[in-house]
Amino acid sequence: MKFERLTKEQFEELHQEFINFLATQSITADEWKAIKQNKPEVAEQELDVFSDLVWYGVLDKVEYLEHISPQHIHLFKCKKNHMLLIALKLKHDKVDFTSKEGFQWLRENLLSDDVEFFTSKKAYSEDRHQDLFKLIQQGANITKGQLFNYFESLIS
């Protein structure tokens, strides 16, 4: 498995898609029950293959990622061959960007000396999907890019 297995809740949400996946392999509901009962290792492999397919589909569509921690904000624009980064770093720990108050403080003090801006461009490794997946595992969220675009317009 290349990524990680979907959770039980994710499988429940994708129940119909999983049925369709099994159907593409000519596995009926009765056959699936038999596989789970008699060949659990084969059932595990099918769950893993389906999970990877779902992750590939999701990661193919990722355009923006955000990772916000108490003193840092990392905003990524995920292009085809590289990603762009806009990062904000707070020089003290009196504010927490993850709180509503901290975000309000940032809006009011964006240009203060307490906030540092960084930008960067990085090519993907051989595997764009894996690079994006690692960022998600580290806490990044897939977004529509409003924050990235806002800060990009400020920097430009």
Strand content: 15-25%
Major sheet size, sense and barrel closure: 5 strands, antiparallel
Straight-line N-to-C gap:
41 Å
**Cα-atom radius of gyration:** 21 Å
Listing every helix as H and every strand as E from the N terminus to the C terminus, the arrangement reads: HHHHEEEHEHEH
What low-confidence regions span 5 or more consecutive residues with pLDDT below 50? none
Q: Averaged pLDDT, please?
A: 92
Overview of this structure, please?
- The protein is α+β, with helices and mostly antiparallel strands and 156 residues long.
- The protein folds into two domains: 8-61; 64-155, no CATH class.
- 50% of the residues lie in helices and 21% in strands.
- It has seven helices and five strands; from the N terminus they run ααααβββαβαβα.
- It has helices at residues 8-13, 15-24, 29-38, 40-61, 100-109, 128-137, 146-155, and strands at 64-68, 72-78, 82-90, 115-123, 141-143.
- The chain has a five-stranded antiparallel sheet, with helices on both faces.
- A hairpin with a 3-residue loop joins strand 1 (64-68) and strand 2.
- Helix 3 crosses helix 4 (40-61).
- It is elongated and about 65 Å long.
- The relative contact order is 0.15.
- The model has no long low-confidence stretch (mean pLDDT 92).
- This is Histidyl-tRNA synthetase.
- It holds the Pfam family DUF6495.
- It comes from Winogradskyella aurantia.
Outline of this structure?
The protein has 156 residues and is α+β, with helices and mostly antiparallel strands. Helix content is 50%, strand content 21%.
